[in-house]
């Protein structure tokens, strides 16, 4: 088991080395994005239902649910629930959007290295240029994969939040 983990670590370290320093930045952004998305999934599945049930209970215990003031209170509670649910979603969407840009930064730095090798050693040394080309392509690929995973799961998270909010609104009848 320990040997297997060492092999995995060596593979990850080799991949990160082939992509250069920008690949570590992509990994950090990806880690932060996934921590925030997992927190939102946790909130949506465990915390929000309890909060929504509290709102529904408070609404059903009200004697007045038809006046203008009651409607404003309902709107305020729904708005607060929506605000709590959408917390950190803007950060998640921003991280998703910058992943490909960070990957392109890796492309630029890798190509600079290729041009540097070409300037020092000429265009005939393909082995030396290969390291720069690897540093140009690996972060781009990693940034796109990170962005795709973020787009897929943040879209699912958004849809689940909208459904949850609609259920809350439907559970608060107003006449």
UniProtKB/TrEMBL annotation:
It holds the Pfam family MotA_ExbB. It is found in: Cell membrane; Membrane. The keyword Membrane applies. Its main location: membrane. InterPro entries: ExbB/TolQ_transport (IPR050790), MotA_ExbB_proton_chnl (IPR002898). The chain crosses the membrane at residues 22-43, 90-112, 132-153. It comes from the Bacteria. PANTHER family: PROTEIN TOLQ (PTHR30625), TONB2 ENERGY TRANSDUCTION SYSTEM INNER MEMBRANE COMPONENT EXBB (PTHR30625:SF18). This is TonB2 energy transduction system inner membrane component ExbB. It comes from Shewanella colwelliana (Alteromonas colwelliana).
